[in-house]
Each structure stands twice: as C-alpha cells, then as structure tokens.
Amino acid sequence: MKNKKNILIVEDETAFLYAMQSKLSIKGFNVETATTGEEGLKLVNDQKFDLIILDLLLPKMDGYDLLRELKSNPGTEKIPVVIVSNMSDKENIDSGINLGAKDFIIKSEYNLDGVVNKIMELL
Amino acid sequence: MKKSREFFHFSDCQQLGLGFWECPTSMFLFMSLLTTITMVATYLIANHYSNPEMVVFSMAAVTIIMMVVNFSINHGISKAAQSKKSLEYANEKLGKAINKLKESEKAREDFIYMIIHDLRSPLNGIRMLSELLLGGKNKIKDKSGRESVRLVNHSTNHMLSLVNDLLDFSKLEAGKFRVKKVKQNIEATLEKIIGYYLPIADSKEISFVVNKAENIPEVDFDQRGIEQVLHNLLSNALKFTEKGVITVDILYHKKNKNLSNESSAAGLFWLTANKKLNILDNSIIIAVSDTGPGISKNLATRLFKKYSQDHEQQITSEKGTGLGLVICKGIVEAHGGLIDLETKEGEGTTFYFNLPVNKEE
Fold first, then answer.
1. Residue B131 and residue A113: Cβ atoms within 8 Å?
2. Are B196 and B115 found together in one domain?
3. In chain A, which residues have their Cβ closer than 8 Å to the Cβ of B121?
4. Which of A113, B1, B150, B303 is the most buried (most CB within 10 A)?
C-alpha cells in the first residue's frame, strides 16, 4: 500500500491501545500512540495525521481539553477526530460532538473488528 | 402575662391545636361567670323566700366540683402537650437522620456507578487483545493455545455483558437513565435486530415468523434503548425455546374496541384469547412469542421486579444478572410505554410492549 495513512491513538488503557495499534497496523496504517493528552498534543504538532482516535478519560489533560486545543488551532482543526470511549452518557456524546468530533464510538458496544471497521469508514 | 397563660394552661391548649373556646379553662371561667350570675340572681330571688343560705351553699359546692374537674383536665392536657412536644422533637431528629441516610445512599450509588463504569475499560482491553490473538497476523499458531484464548474471549464477553447490565441498572436506580427520542420508522430497527438472530435460530430447530401490519406510523423512540429491549426479548425467546416457532408481531393499535379485528389481521394468537392485555390506545405494539416451556404464574409476576428471590436460578440459569427484563421495563417506561407478558405453561410465552404514537402531528 502506497501513501500509508497516519493515525494517532491517544489512550491510557494500554491493553486497548495495543490491540488497536496492532489491528490498525495489520490493516496497513502508520500508527502512533500517546498515553496522555500532553503527549498526544506534542505528536500532533510534530507530525501530520489523517485521523486521531481519542479517549476521553486521560490523566491531567483529558480528551475534551485536547479536542478543544486541536480545534482552536488553525493547523490542526481540520484533522478528523474520533472519540472512542466508555463514557456513554448522552451528555458526554453531545459535548464531544459539539466540540467538533467527527464520531463517537462507545468502546464496549463493539468488538475489535467493529471499532476498526467504524474507524475505516471515516477515513 | 406569660405566667398567667401557663397557669391557665392556654399555651398547652395552643400546643395541642385547641382553640380558645375548646380550652377547659376558658370553659371554666365562662361557667364560673354564669354560675356567679345565677348565684346572685338566685340569692336575690331566694331573699324573698325562706331559706337563701341553702341556695348559696349548693352553688358554692357546684363551683368547687367544677374547679376540681377543670384542674384534672388541665393536668391531662399539659401532659399531652408535653408528649407532643417531645414527639415533634423526635420527628425532627428522625427527619435529619433520614436526610443523612439519603445522602449517603446517593454517595454509595454514585460510587458503585463509577466502579462499574471503570470496570469496563480493562475488560474491554482484555477482550480486544484476545480477539487480536485469535485472528490476523498475530494469530496464535498452537491449537490448544488458541482454544484457551477463545475461552478467555468468551468469558470476557460474558463478563462485559454482565457489567453493561449492571451499569444500565444502576443508571435506572440513580435516575440517570435517559432516552433520546427521535421520530422514526421502527420497522427498520426491528428488521436489523431480527437479522442478527436469524442465523442463531437456523442453528437450532426454530423458525422465525414476522407479522407486520401495513399501517405502522413513525414513532418517537431511542434507537439504542429499543434495540436493547428487542435484543433482550429475542435472545430470551431463543434461549428458552429448543424447537418450534418464534413469532414477532408488530402492529399499530388505535383503540381498545377494535382489538380483535386488528389482531386477526396481524395474527396475534394471544390478542383474541385474552382481552385483558396491558395495551395503550394509539400505540405501536411489538410482541415476541415463543413456543418454549412457558413461565409459572408465580415467576411471571416477579420477572419485571428487581431483586426478586430465586430470580436468577429460574430465569437465567446459564447467563446474566437477571436484570435484563427490569432494564427493558425501565427503557419502555421511559418512553411512556408498557411492557408485559402472557404465558401458558407448556405452550409458550409472549412478551409485548407498547410505544405511544404522538398524535399532535
């Protein structure tokens, strides 16, 4: 596959992070990972990404903060962000979408293939 | 002034909620006044006759008796007022204790909700890693190793579904369960969920029959919530039916009167048999009927209730928290609908629910 697409996963749950990273690599994507919001922000400023997969519950700078930061910066506002979280309350989903997330995937409602397929639909 | 009020027990009377004229002292004073007037009048009249002292003496005796009676009544009243006062104090204390209890109950619920919520993350991680090991490039080559991972995956899925049930339940309990209703076609949702169960029915000796009436209007409902209800009813029907038929009926019900006509059109076997169904006027009815063993009356009355005894052994001997139907009830009621069942032991069970159709459009 030429021109591999770059995906960033920001997620502090390492098992999920590893599974996603492996699966997406198998599907032929370049995958970068970050376990904190700050780390993720640094990576976004250094490299170009085609998609960001974002968890909401992160230490210190959480998913919402990072999303707000990304959308307020002209250099990063166009990168599509998908929230993949277990915070499944309506308020969480609404505020994620209102902040500019392209989609909201509830982790426990899909299996690994399900999450990956949903993400690939967005690319 | 205050002293005299206390002496005459007016404050006690007030405490007990008695009016001025209901108070024995007022009555006594009034009677005394009357007695005095009568006494003087009698004296004046008696003066004209032979024995005036006799009249005065008897009047005085009456007054003394009245005083004694008044004293004893007032004594009783003051006792009653005192116990009322202490009762009020105890009530106040009890109220405070109840509020405190409610607060700590709320804190406990929030805490449990948080724990259950947090349980999902690591479980999800395990599930996804095990899936990774079962397929693709990372697949385990060793056969028994793969079987172990398959079992890990199976158990994790089971555990995750329990945790999801618990989470929904604790949301219902804490009043955090909200439905986002959107006016839409419900048939598409129904087809989607049925499609999911068709292969499972095929693998058993079960055939699926779907009866759809033609006049189904759009209805306000929460996609995820109603999907969950349908998943629950269909998976239960499949779980408890070894072979036979599972029938799904969907119809639009306008008014109670026309029930039998509508039912014969839709082919609901239970509608013609039983007219005492729990059905709302102007609503969509969805019914899932199976040809399973049926449910005993005793159990049927408890199915939708939480924490009912031996619930778990009887209804979910294999899987589940036994909360599935409790959650379904919560979801349907959040839509303003009803859910209920009809069952006959040895013949089968029908679970049905209503979703009200909004008339204003």
1. yes
2. no
3. 13, 16, 57, 86, 107
4. B303
B266 vs B247: CA distance, rounded Å: 11
Q: Are residues B248 and B161 in the same domain?
A: no
Name the residue in chain B with its Cα closest to that of A25. B137
CB contact under 8 A, B127 and A112: yes
Domains held by chain B: number: 2
Q: Are A13 and B117 within 8 A, CB to CB?
A: no
Hey, are the CB atoms on A16 and B124 less than 8 Å from each other?
yes
Nearest chain A residue to B161 by CA distance is A108
- Domains of chain A by range and CATH? 6-122 (3.40.50.2300)
Q: What string of DSSP letters covers B259-279?
A: HHHHHHHHT-HHHHH-S----
Domain end: B146, B177, B208, which one?
Answer: B177
Distances (CA, A) of B147 to A70, B134, B203, B270, B316: 44, 9, 22, 45, 26
Asked if the structure places residue B361 within a domain, the reply is: no
Q: Position B178: which residue type?
A: R
Structural domain contains residue B197: yes
DSSP string, B139-161: ---SHHHHHHHHHHHHHHHHHHH
Contact B128/A89, CB-based, under 8 Å? no
Residue B316: partners with Cβ closer than 8 Å, 6 or more residues away: B322, B324
Cβ-contact A82, A53 below 8 angstroms: yes
pLDDT by position in tens, chain B (length 361): 566 666 667 777 777 777 777 777 777 787 778 777 877 777 777 777 666 676 677 777 777 877 887 787 888 788 888 888 899 999 999 999 999 999 998 888 888 888 888 888 889 889 988 988 888 777 888 888 888 898 999 889 888 888 888 888 888 877 777 788 888 889 889 998 998 888 888 888 888 888 888 778 889 998 888 998 999 999 888 888 888 889 898 888 776 554 544 444 444 555 545 556 667 778 888 999 888 888 887 788 788 887 654 444 444 444 556 788 888 999 999 898 999 888 888 888 889 999 998 765 4
Determine contact: B207 vs chain A, CB below 8 A. no
Q: Are residues B7 and B142 in the same domain?
A: yes
- Write the CATH number for B349: 3.30.565.10
Residue B180: list chain A partners with CB under 8 A.
90
On whether residue B147 sits in a domain, the answer given is yes
